[in-house]
Amino acid sequence: MSLTDITTRVARAEAAAGRPGGSVRLIAVSKEQPHDRVLPVLRAGHRLFGENRVQEAADKWPGWRDEFGPVDVHLLGPLQSNKARTAMELFQAIHSLDRPKLARTLARLAQELGQCPALFIQVNTGAEPQKAGILPDDADNFIAECRALDLPVIGLMCIPPVDEDPATHFTALAQIGARNGLDALSMGMSDDFETAIAMGATHVRVGSALFGARR
Ligand SMILES: *Cc1c(COP(=O)(O)O)cnc(C)c1O
Protein backbone atom coordinates (compact mmCIF):
# COMPACT_ATOMS: atom_id res chain seq x y z
CA MET A 1 0.00 0.00 0.00
CA SER A 2 1.13 3.57 -0.50
CA LEU A 3 2.17 5.87 2.30
CA THR A 4 -1.08 7.78 1.77
CA ASP A 5 -3.11 4.58 2.12
CA ILE A 6 -1.45 3.79 5.43
CA THR A 7 -1.70 7.32 6.83
CA THR A 8 -5.37 7.34 5.85
CA ARG A 9 -5.93 4.10 7.74
CA VAL A 10 -4.11 5.54 10.77
CA ALA A 11 -6.29 8.66 10.64
CA ARG A 12 -9.47 6.60 10.37
CA ALA A 13 -8.43 4.43 13.33
CA GLU A 14 -7.68 7.55 15.40
CA ALA A 15 -11.11 8.96 14.57
CA ALA A 16 -12.87 5.64 15.26
CA ALA A 17 -11.21 5.55 18.69
CA GLY A 18 -12.24 9.14 19.40
CA ARG A 19 -8.60 10.21 19.49
CA PRO A 20 -7.28 13.48 18.05
CA GLY A 21 -5.80 13.36 14.56
CA GLY A 22 -2.03 13.18 14.72
CA SER A 23 -1.90 11.46 18.10
CA VAL A 24 -0.38 8.36 16.53
CA ARG A 25 3.04 8.41 14.89
CA LEU A 26 3.69 6.09 11.97
CA ILE A 27 7.09 4.40 12.10
CA ALA A 28 7.86 3.18 8.59
CA VAL A 29 9.84 -0.01 9.22
CA SER A 30 12.47 -0.01 6.48
CA LYS A 31 14.56 -2.95 7.72
CA GLU A 32 15.65 -5.37 4.99
CA GLN A 33 13.80 -3.39 2.33
CA PRO A 34 15.36 -2.61 -1.05
CA HIS A 35 16.36 1.02 -1.30
CA ASP A 36 14.05 1.64 -4.25
CA ARG A 37 11.08 0.99 -1.96
CA VAL A 38 12.29 3.28 0.81
CA LEU A 39 13.30 6.23 -1.36
CA PRO A 40 9.75 7.05 -2.55
CA VAL A 41 8.59 7.24 1.06
CA LEU A 42 11.47 9.60 1.88
CA ARG A 43 10.69 11.68 -1.22
CA ALA A 44 7.05 11.85 -0.16
CA GLY A 45 8.28 13.62 2.97
CA HIS A 46 7.97 10.91 5.60
CA ARG A 47 10.60 11.42 8.29
CA LEU A 48 10.17 8.61 10.81
CA PHE A 49 11.58 5.15 10.15
CA GLY A 50 12.31 1.98 12.10
CA GLU A 51 15.22 -0.41 11.83
CA ASN A 52 16.03 -3.68 13.55
CA ARG A 53 19.81 -3.81 13.34
CA VAL A 54 22.39 -1.24 14.30
CA GLN A 55 24.80 -2.14 11.50
CA GLU A 56 22.18 -2.10 8.76
CA ALA A 57 20.96 1.30 9.92
CA ALA A 58 24.52 2.65 10.18
CA ASP A 59 25.08 1.61 6.56
CA LYS A 60 21.98 3.34 5.22
CA TRP A 61 20.90 6.32 7.25
CA PRO A 62 23.91 8.68 7.38
CA GLY A 63 23.85 8.87 3.57
CA TRP A 64 20.11 9.37 3.40
CA ARG A 65 20.29 12.06 6.06
CA ASP A 66 22.90 13.87 3.95
CA GLU A 67 20.51 13.72 1.02
CA PHE A 68 17.15 14.36 2.70
CA GLY A 69 18.02 16.28 5.86
CA PRO A 70 17.07 15.22 9.39
CA VAL A 71 15.22 11.90 9.56
CA ASP A 72 14.20 10.26 12.82
CA VAL A 73 15.17 6.60 12.92
CA HIS A 74 14.11 4.36 15.80
CA LEU A 75 15.80 1.09 16.77
CA LEU A 76 13.16 -1.62 17.17
CA GLY A 77 15.31 -4.75 17.41
CA PRO A 78 17.43 -6.16 20.22
CA LEU A 79 20.45 -4.12 21.30
CA GLN A 80 23.72 -5.69 22.44
CA SER A 81 25.66 -3.66 24.98
CA ASN A 82 28.71 -3.51 22.71
CA LYS A 83 26.64 -1.73 20.03
CA ALA A 84 25.03 0.68 22.47
CA ARG A 85 27.31 3.62 21.77
CA THR A 86 26.79 3.43 18.01
CA ALA A 87 23.06 3.07 18.58
CA MET A 88 22.92 6.12 20.83
CA GLU A 89 24.64 8.22 18.20
CA LEU A 90 22.48 6.96 15.34
CA PHE A 91 18.91 6.66 16.65
CA GLN A 92 16.44 9.17 18.06
CA ALA A 93 14.70 6.43 20.03
CA ILE A 94 15.36 2.87 21.16
CA HIS A 95 12.32 0.62 21.65
CA SER A 96 14.14 -2.42 23.01
CA LEU A 97 15.40 -1.54 26.47
CA ASP A 98 14.80 -4.91 28.08
CA ARG A 99 17.32 -5.64 30.83
CA PRO A 100 19.17 -4.05 33.76
CA LYS A 101 22.63 -4.51 32.25
CA LEU A 102 21.65 -2.60 29.12
CA ALA A 103 20.04 0.12 31.26
CA ARG A 104 23.31 0.59 33.17
CA THR A 105 25.32 0.70 29.94
CA LEU A 106 22.99 3.31 28.42
CA ALA A 107 23.15 5.39 31.60
CA ARG A 108 26.94 5.36 31.59
CA LEU A 109 27.10 6.27 27.90
CA ALA A 110 24.49 8.99 28.33
CA GLN A 111 26.80 10.65 30.86
CA GLU A 112 29.76 10.31 28.54
CA LEU A 113 27.99 11.50 25.40
CA GLY A 114 25.83 14.12 27.09
CA GLN A 115 22.79 12.81 25.21
CA CYS A 116 20.47 9.85 25.11
CA PRO A 117 17.76 8.77 22.69
CA ALA A 118 14.19 8.50 23.96
CA LEU A 119 13.69 5.05 25.44
CA PHE A 120 10.88 2.53 25.34
CA ILE A 121 10.99 -0.46 27.66
CA GLN A 122 10.13 -3.66 25.84
CA VAL A 123 7.69 -5.83 27.74
CA ASN A 124 7.34 -9.53 26.94
CA THR A 125 3.57 -9.45 27.45
CA GLY A 126 3.19 -13.09 26.37
CA ALA A 127 6.03 -14.23 28.67
CA GLU A 128 7.46 -16.12 25.70
CA PRO A 129 10.80 -17.75 26.57
CA GLN A 130 12.39 -17.03 23.17
CA LYS A 131 11.30 -13.39 23.09
CA ALA A 132 13.11 -10.34 24.42
CA GLY A 133 11.52 -8.01 26.91
CA ILE A 134 11.04 -7.64 30.62
CA LEU A 135 8.34 -9.90 32.08
CA PRO A 136 5.09 -8.10 32.95
CA ASP A 137 5.54 -8.91 36.66
CA ASP A 138 8.98 -7.29 36.65
CA ALA A 139 8.01 -4.23 34.64
CA ASP A 140 7.18 -1.84 37.51
CA ASN A 141 10.51 -2.52 39.22
CA PHE A 142 12.48 -2.22 36.03
CA ILE A 143 10.82 1.08 35.13
CA ALA A 144 11.74 2.41 38.58
CA GLU A 145 15.30 1.16 38.16
CA CYS A 146 15.65 2.96 34.79
CA ARG A 147 14.25 6.15 36.28
CA ALA A 148 16.70 5.94 39.16
CA LEU A 149 19.44 5.87 36.52
CA ASP A 150 18.00 9.10 35.04
CA LEU A 151 17.28 7.41 31.73
CA PRO A 152 14.76 9.21 29.48
CA VAL A 153 12.15 6.43 29.46
CA ILE A 154 9.09 7.71 27.63
CA GLY A 155 7.07 4.57 27.08
CA LEU A 156 6.64 0.85 26.54
CA MET A 157 6.84 -1.48 23.57
CA CYS A 158 5.50 -4.98 22.94
CA ILE A 159 5.37 -7.62 20.23
CA PRO A 160 2.40 -9.91 20.98
CA PRO A 161 2.67 -13.68 20.42
CA VAL A 162 1.81 -14.48 16.80
CA ASP A 163 -0.95 -16.93 17.62
CA GLU A 164 -2.86 -14.87 20.18
CA ASP A 165 -5.35 -12.03 20.05
CA PRO A 166 -3.12 -8.94 20.06
CA ALA A 167 -5.79 -6.79 21.74
CA THR A 168 -5.24 -8.55 25.09
CA HIS A 169 -1.55 -7.77 24.92
CA PHE A 170 -2.06 -4.16 23.85
CA THR A 171 -4.45 -3.67 26.77
CA ALA A 172 -1.94 -5.21 29.19
CA LEU A 173 0.80 -2.92 27.91
CA ALA A 174 -1.46 0.14 28.22
CA GLN A 175 -2.24 -0.79 31.83
CA ILE A 176 1.44 -1.05 32.75
CA GLY A 177 2.01 2.32 31.10
CA ALA A 178 -0.92 3.96 32.86
CA ARG A 179 0.03 2.82 36.35
CA ASN A 180 3.62 3.97 35.81
CA GLY A 181 2.81 7.32 34.21
CA LEU A 182 4.32 6.39 30.84
CA ASP A 183 2.42 7.97 27.96
CA ALA A 184 4.07 6.50 24.90
CA LEU A 185 2.97 3.05 23.70
CA SER A 186 4.82 1.44 20.80
CA MET A 187 2.49 -1.31 19.64
CA GLY A 188 0.84 -2.49 16.46
CA MET A 189 2.43 -3.73 13.24
CA SER A 190 1.16 -4.32 9.69
CA ASP A 191 -1.53 -6.81 10.67
CA ASP A 192 -2.87 -5.16 13.79
CA PHE A 193 -2.03 -1.46 13.92
CA GLU A 194 -5.65 -0.36 13.84
CA THR A 195 -6.40 -2.56 16.86
CA ALA A 196 -3.38 -1.09 18.61
CA ILE A 197 -4.62 2.45 17.91
CA ALA A 198 -7.99 1.53 19.44
CA MET A 199 -6.10 0.40 22.57
CA GLY A 200 -4.04 3.58 22.84
CA ALA A 201 -0.92 3.11 20.69
CA THR A 202 1.06 6.31 20.18
CA HIS A 203 3.62 4.71 17.84
CA VAL A 204 2.71 2.04 15.28
CA ARG A 205 5.48 0.13 13.50
CA VAL A 206 4.44 -0.71 9.97
CA GLY A 207 6.78 -2.49 7.58
CA SER A 208 5.43 -4.98 5.06
CA ALA A 209 2.02 -3.33 4.62
CA LEU A 210 3.79 -0.19 3.48
CA PHE A 211 6.86 -1.48 1.63
CA GLY A 212 5.86 -5.01 0.65
CA ALA A 213 7.25 -8.33 1.86
CA ARG A 214 10.86 -8.23 3.04
CA ARG A 215 13.52 -10.01 0.98
C1 LIG B 1 9.81 -6.06 11.57
C2 LIG B 1 9.19 -5.40 12.72
C3 LIG B 1 8.04 -4.61 12.56
C4 LIG B 1 7.31 -4.45 11.26
O1 LIG B 1 6.63 -5.64 10.97
P1 LIG B 1 5.55 -5.72 9.77
O2 LIG B 1 4.75 -6.90 10.12
O3 LIG B 1 6.34 -5.87 8.52
O4 LIG B 1 4.78 -4.47 9.80
C5 LIG B 1 7.56 -3.96 13.68
N1 LIG B 1 8.16 -4.08 14.88
C6 LIG B 1 9.26 -4.83 15.06
C7 LIG B 1 9.87 -4.91 16.41
C8 LIG B 1 9.79 -5.52 14.00
O5 LIG B 1 10.87 -6.29 14.20
From TrEMBL:
Positions where N6-(pyridoxal phosphate)lysine occurs in the chain: 31
InterPro entries: Ala_racemase_N, PLP-binding_barrel, PyrdxlP_homeostasis
Stretches assigned to the Alanine racemase N-terminal domain: 4-214
Keywords per UniProt: Pyridoxal phosphate
PANTHER family to which the protein is assigned, alphabetical: PROLINE SYNTHETASE CO-TRANSCRIBED BACTERIAL HOMOLOG PROTEIN, PYRIDOXAL PHOSPHATE HOMEOSTASIS PROTEIN
Membership in a protein family: Belongs to the pyridoxal phosphate-binding protein YggS/PROSC family.
Biological role: Pyridoxal 5'-phosphate (PLP)-binding protein, which is involved in PLP homeostasis.
Protein name per the record: Pyridoxal phosphate homeostasis protein
Originating species: Roseinatronobacter alkalisoli
UniProt lineage: Bacteria, Pseudomonadati, Pseudomonadota, Alphaproteobacteria, Rhodobacterales
